[in-house]
C-alpha cells in the first residue's frame, strides 16, 4: 500500500454490524487484499433508512448530521449494501452548515461492488469458487444505483457483481427466470405487509431452487436475511452468503 | 380496510394468486420482448416524457386550443370541475335526447366519477361493452385492472355469471364460446343505443380531434351506430400536435399488452352528418395535482397499466386490494391526492423496488413519488418518529420475541412503524420467517479487538 | 364563475415553467417494408389473402351479403350503402381500400372517404382491405407525416380483426367487430 493511498472508510450498516459481523470482516479483508487503506470509523450508527422509508425522513436530521461528521474526512466511503448507500445519496435531508460536506459525501460513497469495478477499476478477480451461485439483485442497488442493467429497460446488459464473480474458477452462474424481481423485504414492508413479503420471498427462493442454485448471494444482507429466514423456516437447502464473503474466500 | 389486510386475503387462495402473478408477469414479459425489438425504445420514452412536460407547463393554452379547434369541427365542448358536474352533464345530454339506454366503452374516468350508479339511479341502463368490463359489471364489481378489467376472475367464474345472465350452457368455460355469447348479447345493445359514451386516450390541441384505442372495436361499434357520442376526457390527456401521436402510439400498446398497436385506433374529428359529438373536459382533482410540484408528473400517465403488470405487490395482491379506481403503483401516487386519509396505506404497499418507474412509457418516477407520499402522510397524521417510538417503548419490552430481536435494525424498524401496526402483535416479522442468530460479537467488537 | 374559467384560472395561477417541445429524430425503419408489414398483420391475427382467394370465397357463397364500393369488386357487391348503418347489421363482408400501411405494426390508414359509412369496418362480420403494396411506410412517425393535416372527420388505423383476451388472457378473435381482417396486397 502506498503511503498516499486514498483513505477509505468502511460504512457497515447497523444490521450487518449486529447480525452479520462476518460480512463486515469479509468486506474489510477483501478491500485490504485489493490494496486499499481502510478504516472503520467506530462512532458510526444507523444511517436512518428505516425511519425515512417509513415516512419520517424529517426526523433523520440528527442521524444524517452524525453520518456526515463521521465520514466527511475520508476520501471514499464504502458499504456492503446498495440500499444504505442509496439512502445516504438520495433520501437524507439537507443539513444546514454541512451542505458542502454533504454534497461531497454523495459523490464519494459507494456500494462495495461498484467501488471495486468503478473506482479500483478491477477488471477481473482471479480465484476459485467451485459452486453454483444464484445472484439476488437487490432493488436499491439494481435500479437505484444501477449496479446492473434493468430487465425493464432496453439497454446493453451489464452487471458489476457478475463481472467480479464470473472469472472465479468453478463458479457456475445460475440463470433465473425473473432476473431482478424484488424479494419482498422492503424494510418495514416486511412487517406491515407481512403476508405479501413472505410470498414474494418464497417466490424468489423458488426461482433459485428450481435452477439448481447451491448458494444464494447478493449485495444486501437485508434481502438475504429475509430470504434466509424463510428458507430456514421451510427447511429449504440453500446457503446464503454476501458477495463480499464469496470474493474474499475465493482470493484467499 | 387497509391494503395489508386485503392483500393477505387475496393470498389466501394460493393457486389463484399464483395464477394472477404468473399471468401478469407473462404480460410484462411480452412487453419486455416487444420493447427490445425497438432500438429507439428508451428515446421514445424520453420523448414522450418531454412532450408531457411541455403539456403540463402549457395546459391552459392547449386546452383553449383544443376547445377552439374542436368547436370549429362541430364538436360540443363541456367543462366539468368535478365528478358530480361531469355526471350531471352526461345526464342532461341523455335527458335532452330522451335516451334511456346507453353503451359505454372503457373509460377509467367514468369509473373515477362513478358515472354508472349515477345514471342508473336516474333510470338509465348503462351497458359496458368492453368484454372484461361487461363481465365485472354483471358481478357488480369495478374493474380490478385498468387494461385487463376482469383479470382477477377465472373462466369458471365467468362461465357461472354468463350462465346466469346470458343463459349460456352450465359449466361451459370455453373462452371462445363465452366471448361469442357476449358478442350476440352486446350486438343487440349496440344496435339499440341512441347514445354511446367513450373515454379518450389522447386529445390533440392542434386539430381538436381525439383518439380512442381498442382491440375489440367496441368504442367504434357504439359510436358509429348511435346518434350521439359523448367522450369523457381528463384534462391531462391533451397532447400538442397530431404528429405526437406517433410517439405515444408506439409506446402505448407495447407497454400495455406487448402488442405493437391496438387493432383499432380511431381519430374523431367531427361528427358524421346529422349526428352529434360531445366532449367533456374533466378536472376532478387534476389541477390540484398539477399544483403539487413533487407529484405533478403523475399526470403524464397514459393508462397503459404496465406498472401494474410489473409490480410484485399488485401481481400478488390483486387490484381490489387498493380500493381505488386506479390501482397499483400509479394509483398509489394518484389516489392520495384525491383523499389522503382514505388512501394512506397505498404508498406503503410497495418495497420501493423501482420496477414501475423503469417500465413507465412516460418515465414517471413512480417509486420516488411513493416515497414522497409517505413523508406527506406521516406529516398529515401528525405522527413523528419520536412519538411513535415512545408509544412503542413499553410494547417492545413486554414481548419476549421483540426483546430477542433487539438488534439495531429491528429496533429502528419497530420504532418507525405506521399506526396500523402499533396495534398488531409485534412479532409479525418472525411469524413465517426465522430470525438470524445473534452472533457472539458485533463487527464493532471484532474490529476493536483485531484492528483497534 | 363557470367551470371552464375556474379550471383554466387554476392552471394559469400556478404560473408553471414552460418547457420546450422536443424534436422527434428520424429513426431507422425495416429494410423490407412488405415483409415487416405482413409479419405485423399476421401477429395481429390478420390474414393475408390473394384477390383470387377472395373472389373464390365470394363465388362459393361463404359471404352471402357483400358490400363494396370499389370498382374492381362492384360485381360482387350485392348491397347498396344504406342511409342508416343499422341496416348493415347482417352484412357478411365489406371490401374497402386502405390508403397506406405501417410496416412496424400492420396498421392501415382509412378515412371517411374510404369507408362510405363509419360503421362499415366494424359492423361487417368480415372485413377485407385492399392495399397497394407500394403504399407502405416504416413506422408511425412516417405514418403521421403521410396523414399530414388531412381534415377527414374520421380517421382510423385498423391493424387486425376485433379481438379480446379478457377471459383468462385467452386470445379470442371476433369480440364485437369484424371476425377477420383479410389483407389483400395489390
Protein architecture, described:
The complex is a heterotrimer of chains A (252), B (452) and C (186). By secondary structure, chain A is α/β, with parallel strands linked by helices. In chain A, 47% of the residues lie in helices and 12% in strands. Chain A has 13 helices and eight strands. In chain A, the strands form two sheets. Chain A has a four-stranded parallel beta sheet with strand order 2-1-3-4, with helices on both faces. In chain A, strand 7, helix 12 and strand 8 form a beta-alpha-beta unit. The two termini of chain A are 18 Å apart. The mean pLDDT of chain A is 95. About 9% of the residues of chain B have low confidence. Chain B is built from 24 helices and ten strands. In chain B, strand 5 and strand 6 form a beta hairpin. By secondary structure, chain B is of the alpha/beta class. In chain B, helix 3 crosses helix 12, helix 9 crosses helix 10 and helix 16 runs parallel beside helix 18. Chain B has three domains: 84 residues, no CATH class; 247 residues, NagB/RpiA/CoA transferase-like (Rossmann fold), CATH 3.40.50; 56 residues, no CATH class. Chain C is α/β, with parallel strands linked by helices. Chain C has a single domain, classed as NagB/RpiA/CoA transferase-like (Rossmann fold), CATH 3.40.50. Helix content of chain C is 26%, strand content 22%. Chain C is built from six helices and eleven strands. In chain C, the strands form three sheets. Chain C has a five-stranded parallel beta sheet. Chain C has a four-stranded mixed beta sheet with strand order 7-4-5-8. The longest helix of chain C is centred in the first third of the chain and has 12 residues. The radius of gyration of chain C is 20 Å and the shape is globular. The mean pLDDT of chain C is 96. The interface between B and C is large, with 87 and 73 residues. Strand 9 of chain B pairs antiparallel with strand 8 of chain C.
Number of helices of chain C: 6
Radius of gyration of chain C: 20 Å
Q: Count the domains of chain B.
A: 3
Would you identify the CATH architecture of the largest domain in chain B?
Answer: 3-Layer(aba) Sandwich
Percent helix of chain C, as a range, is 25-40%
CATH architecture field of chain C: 3-Layer(aba) Sandwich
Largest sheet of chain C: 5 strands, parallel
CATH superfamily of chain C: NagB/RpiA/CoA transferase-like
Low-confidence parts of chain C: none
Q: Output the CATH class name of chain C.
A: Alpha Beta
Structural class of chain B: alpha/beta
Globally, the shape of chain C reads globular
Strand segment count of chain C: 11
Q: Mean pLDDT score of chain B, rounded?
A: 91
Number of domains of chain C: 1
The strand line-up of the biggest sheet of chain B is 1-10-7-4-2-3
Amino acid at each position: 500500500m502506498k503511503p498516499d493511498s486514498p483513505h477509505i472508510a468502511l460504512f457497515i450498516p447497523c444490521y450487518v454490524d449486529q447480525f452479520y459481523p462476518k460480512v463486515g470482516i469479509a468486506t474489510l479483508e477483501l478491500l485490504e487484499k485489493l490494496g486499499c487503506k481502510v478504516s472503520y470509523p467506530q462512532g458510526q450508527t444507523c444511517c436512518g433508512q428505516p425511519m425515512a422509508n417509513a415516512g419520517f425522513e424529517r426526523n433523520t436530521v440528527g442521524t444524517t448530521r452524525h453520518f456526515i461528521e463521521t465520514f466527511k474526512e475520508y476520501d471514499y466511503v464504502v458499504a456492503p449494501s446498495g440500499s444504505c448507500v442509496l439512502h445516504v445519496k438520495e433520501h437524507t435531508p439537507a443539513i444546514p452548515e454541512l451542505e458542502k460536506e454533504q454534497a461531497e459525501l454523495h459523490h464519494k460513497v459507494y456500494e462495495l461492488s461498484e467501488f471495486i469495478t468503478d473506482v479500483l477499476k478491477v477488471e477481473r478477480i482471479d480465484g476459485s469458487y467451485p459452486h453454483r451461485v444464484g445472484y439476488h439483485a437487490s432493488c436499491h442497488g439494481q435500479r437505484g444505483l444501477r449496479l446492473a442493467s434493468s430487465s425493464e429497460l432496453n439497454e446493453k446488459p451489464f452487471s458489476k457483481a457478475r463481472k467480479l464473480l464470473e472469472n472465479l474458477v468453478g463458479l457456475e452462474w445460475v440463470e433465473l427466470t425473473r432476473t431482478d424481481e424484488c424479494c419482498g423485504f422492503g424494510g418495514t414492508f416486511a412487517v406491515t405487509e407481512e403476508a405479501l413479503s413472505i410470498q414474494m420471498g418464497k417466490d424468489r427462493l423458488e426461482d433459485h431452487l428450481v435452477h439448481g442454485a447451491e448458494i444464494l448471494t447478493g449485495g444486501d444482507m437485508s434481502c438475504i436475511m429475509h430470504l434466509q429466514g424463510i428458507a430456514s423456516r421451510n427447511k429449504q437447502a440453500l446457503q446464503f452468503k454476501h458477495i463480499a464473503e464469496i470474493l474474499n474466500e475465493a482470493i484467499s | 380496510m387497509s391494503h395489508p389486510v386485503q392483500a393477505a386475503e387475496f393470498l389466501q387462495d394460493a393457486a389463484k394468486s399464483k395464477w394472477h402473478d404468473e399471468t401478469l408477469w407473462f404480460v410484462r414479459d411480452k412487453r419486455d420482448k416487444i420493447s427490445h425489438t425497438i432500438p429507439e425504445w428508451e428515446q421514445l420514452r424520453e420523448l414522450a416524457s418531454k412532450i408531457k412536460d411541455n403539456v403540463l407547463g402549457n395546459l391552459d393554452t392547449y386546452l383553449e386550443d383544443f376547445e377552439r379547434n374542436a368547436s370549429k369541427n362541430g364538436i360540443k365542448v363541456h367543462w366539468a370541475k368535478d365528478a358530480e358536474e361531469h355526471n350531471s352533464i352526461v345526464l342532461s345530454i341523455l335527458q335532452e335526447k330522451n335516451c334511456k339506454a346507453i353503451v359505454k366503452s372503457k373509460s377509467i374516468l367514468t369509473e373515477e366519477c362513478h358515472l354508472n350508479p349515477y345514471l342508473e339511479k336516474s333510470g338509465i341502463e348503462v351497458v359496458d361493452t368492453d368484454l372484461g368490463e361487461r363481465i365485472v359489471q354483471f358481478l357488480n364489481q369495478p374493474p380490478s385492472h385498468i387494461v385487463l378489467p376482469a383479470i382477477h376472475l377465472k373462466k369458471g367464474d365467468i362461465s357461472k355469471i354468463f350462465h346466469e345472465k346470458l343463459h349460456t350452457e352450465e359449466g361451459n368455460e370455453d373462452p371462445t364460446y363465452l366471448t361469442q355469447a357476449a358478442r350476440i348479447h352486446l350486438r343487440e345493445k349496440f344496435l339499440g343505443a341512441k347514445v354511446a359514451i367513450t373515454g379518450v386516450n389522447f386529445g390533440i390541441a392542434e386539430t381538436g380531434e381525439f383518439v380512442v384505442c381498442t382491440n375489440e372495436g367496441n368504442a367504434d361499434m357504439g359510436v358509429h351506430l348511435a346518434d350521439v357520442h359523448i367522450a369523457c376526457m381528463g384534462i391531462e390527456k391533451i397532447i400538442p400536435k397530431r404528429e405526437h401521436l406517433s410517439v405515444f402510439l408506439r409506446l402505448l400498446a407495447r407497454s400495455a399488452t406487448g402488442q405493437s398497436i391496438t387493432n383499432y385506433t380511431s381519430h374523431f374529428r367531427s361528427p358524421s352528418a346529422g349526428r352529434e359529438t360531445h366532449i367533456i373536459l374533466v378536472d376532478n382533482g387534476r389541477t390540484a395535482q398539477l399544483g403539487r410540484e413533487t407529484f405533478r408528473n403523475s399526470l403524464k400517465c397514459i393508462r397503459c397499466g404496465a406498472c401494474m403488470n410489473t409490480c410484485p405487490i399488485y401481481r400478488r395482491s390483486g387490484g381490489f386490494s387498493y380500493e381505488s379506481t386506479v390501482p397499483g403503483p400509479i394509483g398509489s401516487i394518484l389516489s392520495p391526492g384525491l383523499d389522503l386519509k382514505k388512501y394512506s396505506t397505498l404508498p406503503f404497499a410497495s418495497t420501493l423496488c423501482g420496477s414501475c418507474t423503469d417500465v413507465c412509457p412516460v418515465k414517471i418516477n413512480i417509486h420516488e413519488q411513493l416515497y414522497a407520499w409517505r413523508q406527506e402522510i406521516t406529516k398529515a397524521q401528525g405522527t413523528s418518529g419520536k412519538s411513535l417510538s415512545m408509544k412503542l417503548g413499553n410494547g417492545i419490552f413486554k414481548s419476549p420475541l421483540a426483546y430477542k430481536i433487539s438488534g439495531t435494525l429491528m429496533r429502528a424498524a419497530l420504532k418507525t412503524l405506521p399506526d396500523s401496526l402499533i396495534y398488531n402483535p409485534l412479532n409479525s416479522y418472525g411469524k413465517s420467517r426465522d430470525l438470524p442468530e445473534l452472533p457472539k460479537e458485533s463487527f464493532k467488537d471484532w474490529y476493536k479487538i483485531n484492528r483497534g | 364563475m363557470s367551470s371552464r374559467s375556474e379550471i383554466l384560472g387554476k392552471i394559469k395561477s400556478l404560473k408553471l415553467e414552460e418547457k420546450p417541445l422536443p424534436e422527434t429524430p428520424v429513426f431507422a425503419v425495416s429494410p423490407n417494408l412488405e415483409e415487416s408489414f405482413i409479419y405485423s398483420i399476421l401477429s395481429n391475427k390478420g390474414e393475408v389473402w390473394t384477390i383470387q382467394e377472395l373472389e373464390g370465397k365470394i363465388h362459393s357463397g361463404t359471404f352471402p351479403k357483400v358490400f363494396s364500393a370499389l370498382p374492381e369488386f362492384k360485381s360482387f357487391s350485392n348491397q347498396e350503402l344504406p342511409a342508416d348503418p343499422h341496416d348493415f347489421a347482417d352484412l357478411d363482408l365489406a371490401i374497402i381500400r386502405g390508403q397506406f400501411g405501417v410496416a412496424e405494426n400492420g396498421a392501415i390508414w382509412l378515412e371517411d372517404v374510404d369507408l362510405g359509412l363509419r360503421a362499415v369496418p366494424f359492423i361487417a362480420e368480415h372485413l377485407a382491405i385492399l392495399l397497394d403494396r407500394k403504399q407502405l411506410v416504416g413506422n408511425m412517425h412516417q405514418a403521421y407525416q403521410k396523414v399530414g393535416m388531412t381534415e377527414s372527420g374520421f380517421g382510423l388505423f385498423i391493424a387486425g380483426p376485433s379481438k379480446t383476451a379478457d377471459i383468462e388472457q385467452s386470445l379470442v378473435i371476433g369480440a364485437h367487430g369484424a371476425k377477420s381482417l383479410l389483407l389483400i396486397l395489390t
